[in-house]
């Protein structure tokens, strides 16, 4: 028989890690819902055209898209990110602005799988459409920082930049093209190819041979319109007022073409791996119009769940939640007692598990150990006859005998829970 394993770049997330994912998403929801962001669940696949608007020089569009013809002959793509879907939803539903939403879920990119880089990876994020107030930029950034703080992360740095408006960006791209073309021989072959497609992305090159040319390249700051420069100055003063530390990195261009004005990135300095970017975002003031809607400003961020949890591992924070099984019922009389005791405990809101197949006492106690339960309830022939049960603490092993009809109350007391 053939056996199967997960496809490259995908993983099964097992317990207790899966519970950690859920706790991550729940914490994120708590942080952003408190700030007025409502949950949105866009579909995982859409018309390819939606994602083409992300930008035709963007790698996730040119090289990494999971697209296919469905049985109805539509050109469909699995979403590589969710901002484009949310802008499409904005155009479709025309909600009242400012429209503030959050999302969580998987995206798909045909990338080279490695530690911290997967073909199916999860993000949480927010988007705010319909306001171009720099204070909104600062709010969005502050919420990401708040979330990192609530996870317990201490080693996250924030870089910000402004890419200007589309005219600024085009003029800057032209200046970069002139600069790099004048020194083509000194550029790596990879960056020469990038230059053809998108001069801004050359600034992302990590190759040592490109470093001197990149250092000498024209600066975005010198190509900002007055309005874009004023917006950026306001964002920075709002961040300072909120006590948020940041550095301005005028080489920060980010991978997606739709960014305008403010862009930002969060890096975990606790991660030693190649992939230390744990989140990023920016303004995308032209995207709604590109998707056929009215001119609408927008800003948001996406945080990589997989990679942020690697950062949590590196900092030793945000561990998987403890087992929900509080009591393990050890029934050595056949199993009927375990059935009824588990039902009573569960109905009382107490996590309870048991063994099956009439295992011996020793095997059942081993299972109790593995379950993470704090207590074992033990019922043997003597207890069955006397209509009692033993409550035993797993750590320390102290035990007491209680009347069978007082068992739930006894367990509650042993767990330190008040009576309802
Ligand atoms: P982006 O949507 O490209 O701006 O990415 C935002 C964040 O998502 C990044 O900072 C990463 O943390 C995460 N991310 C992007 N691509 C991947 C991937 N292939 N695997 C894991 N995480 C990713």
Question: What structural class is derived from the secondary structure elements?
Answer: alpha+beta
**Mean pLDDT score:** 94
The helix content is: 25-40%
- By CATH reckoning, the class of the largest domain would read Alpha Beta
User: What is the tally of helical segments?
Assistant: 16
Q: What would your notes on this structure say?
A:
The protein folds into 2 domains: 240 residues, 2-Layer Sandwich (BirA Bifunctional Protein, domain 2); 89 residues, Rossmann fold (3-Layer(aba) Sandwich), CATH 3.40.50. Helix 1 packs antiparallel against helix 5. Strand 9 and strand 10 form a beta hairpin. The protein is elongated. The strands form 3 sheets. It has an 8-stranded mixed sheet, sandwiched between helices. Strands 13-12-14-15-16 form a 5-stranded mixed sheet, sandwiched between helices. The protein is α+β, with helices and mostly antiparallel strands. The structure holds adenosine monophosphate (AMP). Adenosine monophosphate (AMP) binds next to strand 6, strand 10, strand 11 and helix 12.
